[in-house]
Write a structure and sequence with these properties.
Blueprint: E1 5-9, H1 16-24, E2 29-33, H2 40-44, E3 57-59, E4 65-67, H3 69-79, H4 94-108, H5 112-115, H6 128-149, H7 163-171, H8 178-184, H9 186-196, H10 202-208
Parallel strand pairs: 1-2
Antiparallel strand pairs: 1-3, 3-4
Helix pairs in contact: 1-3, 1-7, 4-7, 7-9, 8-9
The structure holds glutathione.
Protein name: Glutathione S-transferase
Pfam families: GST_N_2
GO molecular function: transferase activity
């Protein structure tokens, strides 16, 4: 059995909430830096890890490798229930938790495959800006729908910080960015700001997704 978890990821990417979760759980892990959007060489690093050649992926101490950010976050939270990073199966908030974890992954995160590189589906470079703008409108609409349905407490699911909070705090910083997120989902703004400033996460944010000047575009 290997000793530590290995996260395949990059600063600012979907590996950040996973790194944050591992650090909250005080589990030993190391990061294999990999930014597949930077080109073939980086993509190739993932050839034996994730057939989708995407990050995040997580190698478990058993040697098994998981991909898919939502699945990894849910699995980590469920595997260490004492940390209360997800509602338990029997808790009333569990369906809401699963609903929005899956929503962020499938309705929002999946769109970046095109948004990050519109030439994957549209050859004509003159159309790329429009494709991106439409995808960012769609992402804003998804945040709006989520904001209209969730009734957060201190955190999205009540009084405990969950992996959903970490996931949304990260994904809401991707384009179209936080300003638009605050506009379309004002009811979610206070929670993400709370997660941004949580002292347990200061080091992770600083190292892996820093709040550099102008970040809140
Ligand atoms: N469904 C995947 C999406 C992962 C994803 O899109 N990752 C991006 C980085 S944040 C990536 O690896 N992009 C490179 C590519 O898709 O080629 C998940 O939830 O983990």
């Amino acid at each position: 059995m290997n000793e530590a978890f290995v996260v395949y990821g990059a600063a600012g990417s979907g590996s950040v909430p996973i790194e944050a979760t591992l650090s909250l759980l005080k589990l030993p892990y190391r990061v294999e830096e990999c930014a597949p959007w930077e080109g073939q060489q980086e993509e190739n690093k993932l050839a034996d890890i994730n057939p989708m050649r995407q990050v995040p992926a997580l190698a478990l101490p058993t040697g098994e490798v998981m991909s898919e950010s939502a699945a990894i976050l849910i699995w980590l939270a469920d595997s260490y229930p004492e940390a209360r990073l997800a509602p338990a199966l029997s808790e009333p908030a569990r369906p809401t938790f699963l609903r929005w974890m899956t929503f962020v992954s499938s309705a929002i995160y999946a769109l970046y495959w095109v948004a990050d590189n519109p030439s994957r589906i549209i050859e004509h470079a003159g159309h790329h800006a429009t494709v991106k703008a439409r995808l960012f409108d769609r992402i804003a609409r998804c945040w709006e729908l989520m904001g209209a349905q969730l009734r957060p407490g201190h955190y999205f699911l009540g009084e405990n910080l969950s992996v959903l909070d970490l996931y949304v705090a990260t994904a809401s910083r991707w384009s179209p960015g936080r300003r638009r997120f605050y506009e379309v989902a004002p009811g979610l703004a206070e929670v993400v700001r709370r997660v941004d400033t949580d002292s347990r996460l200061t080091a992770i944010w600083a190292e892996r997704f820093p709040f550099t000047q102008g970040w809140e575009r």
